[in-house]
Amino acid sequence: MAKTKEVNQKKIKSILNQNSTKFLYEYLNNTSPTGFESSGQKIWLNYLKPYIDEHFVDTYGTAVGVINPSAPYKVVIEAHADEISWFVHYITKEGFIYVCRNGGSDHQIAPSKRVNIHTDKGIVKGVFGWPAIHVREPGKEETPTLKNIFLDLGCKSDKEVAELGVHVGCVITYEDELMELNNRYYTGRALDNRVGGFMIAEVARLLKENKDKLPFGLYIVNSVQEEVGLNGATMIARKIKPNVAIVTDVCHDTNTPMMNKITSGDLSCGKGPVLSYAPAVQNNLLKLIIDAATKNKIPFQRLAAARSTGTDTDAFAYSTDGIASALISLPLRYMHTTVESVNKQDVEEVIKLIYASLKQIKNNHDFRYIK
Questions:
Q1: 254 partner at 20 to 30 Å CA-CA among 90, 207, 208, 356?
Q2: Mean pLDDT of the chain
Q3: Rounded Cα gap, residues 192 and 173, in angstroms
Q4: Where are the domains of the chain?
Q5: End-to-end CA distance of the chain
Q6: Which CATH code is given to the segment(s) 11-83+189-360?
Q7: 0.85 exceeded by pTM
Q8: What is the dotted CATH code of the domain comprising 85-174?
Q9: Phi-psi region at 362: left, alpha or beta (left = phi > 0; alpha = psi -120 to 50)
Q10: Which residue in 241, 255, 269, 260 sits closest to 331, CA to CA?
Q11: pLDDT tens column, 251-293
Q12: Are 11-83+189-360 and 85-174 the same fold in CATH?
């Protein structure tokens, strides 16, 4: 039965077009580290502009496209634009570099990775070095930590490092590009969560191409600085003051080796979007999204998120006087690595679900529990 379902999935006509795919690769292969998202935001806005009425960018770089801007009732669809990275933290006299995190960067995957150091003089290449297996003593091997991972730029001194334009505070990203696995998965760094920015842009495209007239103002928001505290979403929620926010982010596929379903839930790539239950998720808005999924035969999974979702949903929900908020997540394997992987069909199902949910929202839709 599972095999038949897989074959049938491949026969589903894609809602993406050639231009969509070109945008996806350009956007995902670009770097957009936390606090330095501007180049990615330019790519995103350039793609979005034909499908919106106006746009603006706030002080810290959150980009917003608006459809029907004069409408008093406001709905947000949101993703975050930033990716994890490193900062140059300390440069030794011998020219080696120690780093500190910019977001939730994983120290265990760093050794032997190639990196780009972003400087005013352009990109400087480097590698995370690590002692060879031949010289490590069995049973006494050090594991990678923030205290021992280091960069090698091929320099002999700190002076040579400085001559390249590298200084404390320069941001570092992994050198890695988007690829596909078995025509089924998109794989690369920073799918968390620029694939979300891609998906909400595709929703805007579908609305324009299908000539849909929304009875409310739609704000397509690509927020900055999620990885360091939901900062961009917090700021933009106060600026827009929306009535509704539908956030998209990634969540963990728990069906790969070494994952614990008891603690993380039973979620899998290829089985559709994930809908979260959490205090920040407004139950009536969640019900509307589930109804939209059911009516449009969009498969979905469920996740209990306990105290918080850990996403921009929390920032929107508790901003201003309280914003009716919900989270539609995309299952992802190997989060915060250079091989983050998402199922291509899941990407399309998330786009469809956000689109279908917007079509369910009425002008001045009242999501209160007690009316």
A1: 356
A2: 95
A3: 14
A4: 11-83+189-360, 85-174
A5: 46
A6: 3.40.630.10
A7: yes
A8: 2.40.30.40
A9: beta
A10: 269
A11: 999 999 999 999 999 999 999 999 999 999 999 999 999 999 9
A12: no
